[in-house]
Amino acid sequence: MVRNVAGVVAELDPEDVHLLSGVEQGMRFSEWVDRGKLPDFANLSPEEVDYRLNRCERRELIERRTIQYEGYTLTDKGYDVLALHTFAERDTIDGVGAPLGVGKESDVLEVRSFRPLALKFHREGYTQFRAVNREREYTSDHNHVSWLYTARKAAEREYEILMELYPDVSVPQPVDQNRHALVMEKLAGVELASADFDTAQAVGVFDLILREAVLAYEAGYVHADLSEYNVFVSEDGVTVFDWPQAVPTDHDNAAALLRRDVENVARYFRRKYPAEAPEVDATRVAKAVADGSFESVRAFVD
User: Is the pTM of this model over 0.85?
Assistant: First the structure.
């Protein structure tokens, strides 16, 4: 379930935010922050720290564990609160609305601002950050990294890539980023996995997706996780989202990842539209995408 923490943010005092920020700062050095160090990290008196710890623990924003010492760590809910508080201070958003979706590594909610936007919380690594750290290139050079770092780096990377791709590639317009969260354009239409097309439409959408892959490649990136679950389809065309795992085109595995992207999309269309979707040679298509010669999927029918 996608969690909306806007109500919690409204309940917090400035000192509560100082306490949460102090725990966050301490987690740069240890997963569990020594209670005795929190007055310095949070710039609060020991008595104020005691009071704020109780308030934040009741709201499930922090966890406590007694090891060799009394330690505290942020929960994912507490990290959400810090990011949302910052967006509100920047006037990026005015309020948080309904959930828009939940994935393996992210939650997305609608937010109110100068226009409807989407707020994405990255969840990479919260429960299994060590495994994610081994797989994700943007953390692979760190032997010891917290889930906060893993999720924040994913959000930073996705925001940077969207800034580079938009508007030349049909991706969500990036608006703001803080910690493990980013604010971006709310997508119109429906997820490809939920859409239904007739024969001509199915082939046309297949073409549109591959053309966006061409534009992304020309801009220097391969999506590297393209599927029916990160493409939105509307009357205006297609929009490709979820880019934190993208790799530059000079990456050693770029060709293989591009071929896998093409195979994933082709496999989906063949499975859902067996009578309509053409059988294509994914290797040839990927090569055409990479060299800019792709014009139509029909040219690659086996």
Answer: yes
